[in-house]
Amino acid sequence: MTAPEDAAAPEWPPRRRSPRRRAVPRELAHYMRPVLDELTAEITDEVHHRIAEYGPGPDSVNLTSTRLVITQAVRYFVDHVADPHASRAQLDETLHRLGRGMAYEGRSPEALRSAYHIGAGMAWKRLHALAARRGLPAGILGDLGEELFAFIDSLAEQSSQGYLEAQAQLTDAAHQWRGRVLELVLAGRAAPHGELAAHAAAGGWVVPESVALVAISPTPGVELPSVRMLHPSALGTLHADDPVVLLPAPLTDAMRDEIAILFADHRVAIGCDVPLLDAASSLRWARRTLELARTGLIADAPVLDCRDHVGTLWVHAEPLLAEIVVGSTLAPLFAEPRNSRRILGMTLLHWISTQNPSAPAMAEVLGVHPQTVRYRLKRLRDIFGDRIDDPQTRLEMFFALRATGPRWNDGQPAPD
């Protein structure tokens, strides 16, 4: 018989026992992973509602910062159960940043300790129910509690270290210097190199050879995270209408994960890696990617990456020129009714892209009967005449269709 989900969990924190050999089965991590996202959301909401400093209001700790720490902590604990030697470098760095951020903002660490206690209690209740359902012996369940107890202690210790370091070494002046560095970097080759180096040194920022810029489109009414929650090697301005983050390139998976978590409630695009003095280009591409996603020309995603859309960005690099090419090259197609225009445009793009495929091959891709394809191709020849066989015209048609085609493929009519 298995224990019910709401079985009463032992009192938290569990009573400490004498040191003993680790007995928590690593296989338990397999059963814990499916509930991680749900548990993370529950802990975040509970902390948000029970602790005033983490609740709604202008003086509260940003919810996205809380979510980042909770997400990394919960994931690492399960990784540690699966592998006691799992690296926690990323988590410790985040905890240090959290502690530093609390010090910078003049907050007491007491609220943070309370948040850890709340999270631990909720995690213990969930883990106890899970272990009981699996029929684990009481001794193993006790060992699991000991693991969690020690883990929470370590979280508090790491964030406390960051808090004390910030109080002793760092000041708001460093972030002001860093803000000026970002301005100079975005000015590119026009910025005095000596001034950039001096400001970077004053802000404690190591100048990288290459960077990637992150453009953020804020969701109205949703607060942005504090700039102090960014990666230590990042620069950012998150109070403007067009928030920007600069990261040293190449970006690590950990950096990408942090961006996704910190800005989960906003639209985000990461620009391509470029030399430091070309940072403005990376930012321009990231902003252009957001714009194309808004218009449906790029498929939306939680975090858009310019590297995945280089071709589309290139086609749309000169919007006015693209509009002229589309208007002149596809003018006969625009005379068709909207639905016919969409169907014929998709067919023409596929025909040009695949170099005169057979009607059956096209039919399989387009999901229609071969005879339907033959009819569409005949209709296209009626519309465009011999121009459809001219290599230069076909090339222009290809780029024109690429400039508008994604919206057609989604079932949206092309623009008039």
What does this structure look like?
Helices cover 58% and strands 6% of the residues. The chain has 416 residues and is an alpha+beta fold. The longest helix has 32 residues, at 138-169. Mean pLDDT is 81; it is low at 1-9, 16-21 and 409-416. Helix 2 crosses helix 3. The radius of gyration is 28 Å and the shape is globular. It has 3 domains: 28-169, Globin-like; 209-315, 2-Layer Sandwich (Alpha-Beta Plaits); 319-409.
Helix/strand layout:
Blueprint: H1 28-32, H2 36-50, H3 63-82, H4 89-104, H5 110-133, H6 138-169, H7 172-187, H8 193-202, E1 210-217, E2 235-237, E3 244-248, H9 253-262, E4 267-270, E5 274-275, H10 279-294, E6 303-305, H11 310-315, H12 319-329, H13 331-334, H14 338-353, H15 359-366, H16 370-384, H17 391-409
Parallel strand pairs: 4-6
Antiparallel strand pairs: 1-3, 1-4, 1-5, 2-3
Helix pairs in contact: 2-3, 2-5, 3-4, 4-6, 5-6, 7-8, 12-17, 14-16, 14-17, 15-16
Region (Disordered): 1-23
Organism: Jatrophihabitans endophyticus
Domain PucR-like N-terminal: 23-186
